[in-house]
Amino acid sequence: TQNIKLSVHLHAYGEGHQMLLSRDITAVALADAMRRDFVANVSHEIRTPLTVLSGFVETLQSIPLDEEERQSYLHLMSVQAERMQSLVADLLTLSQLEGSLPPGKHERTPLPELMAQVLSDARSLSSVLSGQGGDERGPVHELVFESSPPWVLLGVRSELLSAISNLVSNAVRYTPAGGRIQTKWSTSTDCVTFSVTDTGPGIAPEHLPRLSERFYRVDRSRSRETGGTGLGLAIAKHVVQRHGGELRIESQVGVGSTFMLVFPASRLETLSDQTH
Ligand code: ADP
């Protein structure tokens, strides 16, 4: 099909349009390479937990284990199964996010309610990551969530929640215990911005342009350890772009990072507007 497409283009453009043609070939080849990369990445991401899982099944079948050992293998197996479930869920989310937002999909999403959910998830994640899942000592990070202004965002609630949650959970996952994570909403004449700032490891400038690509990771092992699928930032970027905005990242190694979702001001209403 690629050859046929190219010859059709050649015919259509004729001579004197060499530049257009070569740009077209590059675009087709690039899209093709990206698709191949994507499939290779997905296969790799799925193969790793599957290999671990089948290794454990074999051990359970062939070696006599006491109850405690058996339980610990079963626990490790369920962690791998959950990892595949998150990956498949993120892949589905991403494929649904392609394209622009259809008209009519503009729910009124009150920020205070949205942020209450994000904060509660961040607290749980922070305590789970301390290795004390569900313990009453609470989060191991200082979570500073400025009280959300009485604003309503026009957009798809579930998508906005997933973009914001991905940024906040990354801040929790990459910031060592004792670190600080701060969220903020602000406005200017043109935009409304959500930002999350952490005191994590920071990201070197050479990684920044590629960070929101699917499966691009600076530190593969940290991402795995904390349950990352490698798709969180790709999802956040797609969501904000579908809402007419953009993802911005500022970071300094050894100091921390700020991730921002910048929406056009037209997406904003104040809660009191509702009553008029
Ligand atoms: P992952 O599941 O690997 O976290 P993401 O798409 O959410 O996937 O993030 C891509 C990569 O960006 C991560 O693997 C990590 O290297 C880097 N990253 C994301 N957020 C942060 C952060 N707050 N601090 C440092 N590095 C981060």
Automatic annotation (TrEMBL):
GO biological process, one term: cellular response to phosphate starvation
Protein name (record): Phosphate regulon sensor protein PhoR
Catalytic reactions on record: ATP + protein L-histidine = ADP + protein N-phospho-L-histidine
Role played: Member of the two-component regulatory system PhoR/PhoB involved in the phosphate regulon genes expression. PhoR may function as a membrane-associated protein kinase that phosphorylates PhoB in response to environmental signals.
Origin: domain of life: Bacteria
Species of origin: Limnohabitans planktonicus II-D5
Bilayer disposition of the protein: Multi-pass membrane protein
Main localization (coarse): membrane
Keyword Secreted (UniProt): no
Annotated localization: Cell inner membrane
Keyword Hydrolase part of the UniProt annotation: no
Domain Histidine kinase: 41-267
Residues of the full protein shown: 172 to 447 of 447
GO molecular function, one term: ATP binding
Keywords: ATP-binding, Cell membrane, Kinase, Membrane, Nucleotide-binding, Phosphate transport, Phosphoprotein, Transferase, Transmembrane, Transmembrane helix, Transport, Two-component regulatory system
GO CC aspect terms: plasma membrane
Enzyme Commission number(s) from the entry: 2.7.13.3
